[in-house]
Specification:
113 residues, 5 helices, 49% helix, elongated, metal-binding
Amino acid sequence: MRFLFFLIPFFLCAEDSFITQIEYGRMLYENPRGIGCVECHGESGEGKIIANYTHKKKQKQLYGPKINDIEFDSFSKALQKSQKIMPKYYLTKQEIEAIYKYLESKKDIIKDK
């Protein structure tokens, strides 16, 4: 019986989840459904060149835009509509929020340096 009283504080302090929303957002950002956001948008959402190519004898670049400085509503809408080259991931509202919070946390780390 004493053993049960000893465990009560541990149950009261237990969290609902084993990972935080930011950790979940990092996992989704790095690999949501096969190809991670990081591949085209960079480590912190700063944008990244995806490919260099030639079209009609002109050098062109394909790039993933910067996504770490936009408002949540714009971010969410962009993920829910079809894009020309970006895959549609069919993310839930909670997944979108987790990715956004992860990118926000990366911005805070950069500010602190």
